[in-house]
Amino acid sequence: MWGRRSIAASRRAALEVRHRIALRPSSPSFFSSLPSVPRQRTRPRITLPTSRPLFAITPVRHCSAEVRMMASSDRDTLPDVAKPVNYHVSLFDLQLGGSWEYKGIIKVDTKITRATKEIVLNSKDITVQSAEVFGQDGTQLAKATDISYDKTSERVSLKFSLDLAPSDVVLSINFTGTMNNVMAGFYRSKYTPVGEAGPGAPKEGDFYYMLSTQFESCDARRAFPCFDEPNLKATFDFEIEIPKGQTALSNMPVKSERDGSSADLKFVTFEKTPVMSTYLLAWAVGDFEYVEAMTERKYKGKSIPVRVYTTRGLKDQARFALECAHRTVDYFSEIFEIEYPLPKADLLAVHEFAMGAMENWGLVTYRTTAVLFDEGKSDNRYKNRIAYVVAHELAHQWFGNLVTMDWWNELWLNEGFATWVGWLAVDHFYPEWNVWSQFVAEGVQQAFHLDSLRASHPIEVPVRNALEVDQIFDHISYLKGSSVIRMLSVHLGQERFLRGVADYLKSHAYGNATTNDLWSALSKASGQDVHGFMDPWIRKIGFPVVTVAEEPGQISVRQNRFLSTGDAKPEEDETTWWIPLGIKSGDKLANVDTRALTAKSDNVAGAGSDGFYKINKDLSGFYRTNYPPARLEKLGQSLGLLSTEDKIGLLGDAAALAVSGEGTTPALLALLEGFKDESNYLVWSQVSSSLANLRSVFAQNEQVAAGLKQFTQKLASPTAEKVGWEFKPNEDYLVIQLRKLLISMTGNSGNASTVVEAKRRFDLWATGQDKTAIHTNLRSAIFSLNVSEGGRKEYDAVKEEYLRTDSVDGKEICLSAMGRTKDAALVQDYLNFVFSDKVAIQDIHNGAVSLAANAKMRHLLWEYIKTNWDMVESRLSSNNVVFERFIRMGLSKFADHQIGDDIAAFFTNKNTGAYARALVIVSDNIRTNASYKERDQALALEWLRAHGYA
């Protein structure tokens, strides 16, 4: 799944993990906009912990069967008396309006492993009417005499008066459920159709509805009673009764149709699925149409149909995703050396979706902005997003679906790998996008940020109860996981690495596997001890900073755990990581030393003896590098010798070290000055990110803020003038993105010519004189700048555009721009609007992101939350993922200890289960920002004055 965030579990889980709650991301960058999955777990009342490591585990190496048994005994799983083999799921009597209830019957071919009078399944928000057990010949063996529910553990117990003997039986259950509106389980999404809706389309009030499912990680149990654990795989037969004018989809192709219970209804039955986990089952019902392409590669002698489904009127916007999808299916079949295992591949755009996408086998579901692109109306940035998300989810068809992690503690096996190989596919099809540099600028840096907090956790963490799993759907599982996979693939060589992956998939096809199984396959393919050097990266918290000291004829290198606060205690700095040094040296940095640092410190003879070297080639290793000041200065003067990834890494390291106190803001500013002639968008994105953080942290010091504004303007304006405002036919994607970025940077730093031109174009557009005055790729830059510089007129114009736009990305762009206002009264109006029914729940967090980036106004967001808490909680509590995102993204930017204390005090007696880990992240970030501000603001002002900026 792409874009999950975490939530709290149950009271017991919260206590057992010592308040280690959960998380996920955002800034204007691509990786920080990863949307997420909803949960409504029991929300414990807890007290915020002090800042400390949230997880402590002992690494397990070369996992034996005995160790695995011990590990499984530490899991809170269903009783092992019953094992599912095949489910037959039948849903009927769907109430398409009003109560939105439905009825269902499941018949589960089940192995009873030992005599029992009780069968326990997972169930949530389901009412079981009756349960019976039949023999294989259809003879009734027993009927449930007692049906009871444990809401905390989300289980239903079926008790029988007679012992069920070990045998193969059929468990039959009659139940009712609800098509809810919380984006979890079997749920409904409202939308306004494009054109006339088809016959039978569900409608209630002013909206039409489509129906779809979201089961990962633990929400199949919301749709039907089931054994909802990833290693309890089974096959599935599925059928559903729907209006005759509507379309039903599921994992497999349609097998047959028959008349339903009335003349206007029909039953649609689907082919049996392969063996798979419950969280991968999916179905959807709606007024759908599709675009289709056939794979070029033949599978069992035939091409496979690849389709992208949308609600009526939107299918033309699915053509770019289709182009990506059918080629990606063929590409992964080739590099994984296993043919795509299903007879069809469907993608579906879902109107209300809390994450980015979900990898249901054969029926992948997507948020609309992650799969639809309207040529001429959509920002080109969304093409990049769609290509990646499509590839990420299709990678899961093998890595996650065909081979599934044994238990949720190894979620990273799914998500870390799918993230890495998703970008591998995008790079294969769109090399001109330079996506590995994008990954370094966004993905790696985001992972660094979270993993530098004490609130981080290891990539692989113990998960006792499946309800805890949401805690690890975050930047650590996705982005740190993919970063260390990139590090390993570079070290082993991509071809050898993929050969090991292919062997892993072949060995465990249609089964479950562990991290150690992957390491074993890679060790065999490479002839290296992958277990030995990768285990600390997976099972230990944090990452290192490599500090370099120069001596005659050699350099010395030392590794220590890096914390953003720069104060790692001895007990927090016990890990010794395997660190590939990747030392580039020589006049043109043409020589590469591939040795690794495997001790706390070491000497490297000859490095730098000719006067020039750089550590960590292309930032392929997941660590920061701390150079002596003179070396950093020399590297800054030799940018022409560095790769794009090297430049990004150099800037990211300098910025992070300034925050931690192991470097300084003057050193960072001096390095940034050297990039005034840079022409690469991805390097500029890192420059922009570094400057944005400086301007955010020091925003309340007016002299420093003014100096940084002047610094930004002088740094970016020359390149902005070269790139200009006008778009050329067939212009390079990265040039388009650079133009947008530089207009934002120069405009927001007060460049008079940029502001004047942005206002001119906005006025032509807003007055209707020229609706084409704002290029589609400049909407975000021009809208934001005009709202920031203007007043009620500009704000209202963008608000009206939000309400009327039919562009798939238009609402996101407008909502973000409106939050840039510097008028306190408009901030109040904005927040009221964000919490109104005009903004979908899945998008509310975008309002928090926008105001958090508005340094002058962000305090009003906190005041609004406090003043309107009951309303805020009521609106967000229906979707805990959105709740968690809103709190974390809205409050993490403050740089004031007093505000941090106020936030902690406010939530002391609140029911914080849905966002408690978010509060730990907020606390860590505010503490880091405030300490950095206090330590470096005088130094920053001194440097800015000395260099004529203040």
Automatic annotation (TrEMBL):
Keyword Hydrolase found: yes
SUPFAM superfamilies per the UniProt record, alphabetical: Leukotriene A4 hydrolase N-terminal domain (SSF63737), Metalloproteases ('zincins'), catalytic domain (SSF55486)
Co-factor requirement: Zn(2+)
Active site residues of this protein: E393 (proton acceptor)
Note describing how the cofactor binds: Binds 1 zinc ion per subunit.
Keyword terms of this UniProt record: Aminopeptidase, Hydrolase, Metal-binding, Metalloprotease, Protease, Zinc
Name under which the protein is recorded: Aminopeptidase
Source organism: Penicillium cosmopolitanum
